[in-house]
Amino acid sequence: MSNDRSQRQDDDDLRLFHTGEHACGYWPDRAARDLVLDPRDPRLVDWYPHALGWGFRRSGDIVYRPHCNGCRACVAVRIPVDRFAPDRSQRRCLARNRDVDMRVCAAQRTDEQLALYRRYLASRHAGGGMDDHGATEFDQFLIGSWSEGRFLEFREHGRLLAVAVTDVTQAALSAVYTFYEPEAGARGLGTLAILRQIEWARRERRSHLYLGYWIAGHPKMDYKRRFHPLEAFDGRGWHDLTA
User: Fold this and answer.
1) Helices (H), 106-188
2) Residue limits of the N-end rule aminoacyl transferase C-terminal domain (predicted)?
3) Contact, 32 vs 23, CB < 8 A?
C-alpha cells in the first residue's frame, strides 16, 4: 500500500499557491502577490528547470512568479547566449576589468563573502528590510536547501570584489543575485557579472541565461534591456523583446 501512495504522489501535478498581498519591492505605492510552487514538494528540484521556462524565479527555497492584481510590470527575461554580442559599452566594461580574475565556487558561504554582502546591502539597499541580514539570512536567501547553485567570484589581486549567485541547470544558467564592493562601483561589476555568466553558459553549451524580471522604466531593473537580444515571457511563450 505504501508503494501505491508513493506512485500516486509521483503522478500528482505540482501544486501552486497564491500568496496574500504584500508590499511591492519595486513600486512603493503598489501591492504585490506571487504565484508560488509548493515549497514542501520533494520534486521541486526536478521541476525547477521547467519553472524557469514558465517565467518563475528562485529566492531561497521559494520558486515564484509575480501575479499581481491589475499589474503586469514584471516581465521574465532571458538572454539567448549564442545570439548575444556585447555592445561598445559592454566591451569597455570587459576591458576596464581585465585585471579581475574569476572562478566558479561551490555555493557555500564564507566570512569574506558575508562581509561583502553586508557592505553591499548597507550601501545599496539601506532601509530596504535587509539591513540586519546575517549568516542565517544569507544562507536562506542565496543558497537554500535544494538548489544546484554556484558562486561566481570576482577578485582583483586576491581581493574579493563581487559574487554572482548562479543556478545551474542542464539547459541554462539563472542569475539569482549579485552583490559587489560598493567602493568599486565605477567598474560596472553588475554588468561584468552578466557578461561573464553569458560566457560561462556559452562555454558549457547552455542555451540561455535567465535574468529574472525586467521592469520598463524602473531605475534598478531597466538595465537588463541593454543586453541584446533579450527574450521575454508573455505568459504563453518566449519572444524577442523589441525596443
Assistant:
1) 111-124, 135-138
2) 112-233
3) yes
| Residue 132 to residue 118: CA distance in whole angstroms | 8
Categorize the per-residue pLDDT at 124 as very low, low, confident or very high, splitting at 50, 70 and 90: confident
Helix axes 189-203, 88-96, angle to 10 degrees: 100
Of 200, 240, 183, 198, the closest CA to residue 90 belongs to 198
Average pLDDT, the chain: 91
Q: Please tell me the distance from the alpha carbon of residue 187 to that of residue 184, in angstroms, as a whole number.
A: 6
Q: Edge to edge, what strands does the sheet with 57-59 contain? A: 16-18, 34-37, 62-66, 57-59
N- to C-terminal Cα separation, the chain = 57
| Segment 67-101, tens digit of pLDDT | 999 899 999 999 999 999 999 999 999 999 999 99
| Tens of pLDDT, residues 141-167 | 999 999 899 999 999 999 999 999 999
Q: Which of 237, 209, 233 has the alpha carbon at shortest distance from 72?
A: 233
DSSP character string of 116-138: HHHHHHHHHSTTSS-TT--HHHH
Gyration radius (Cα) of the chain, Å: 18
pLDDT of residue 130: 65
The dihedral built from the CA positions of residue 18, 50, 150 and 40, taken in this order, carries a sign that is positive
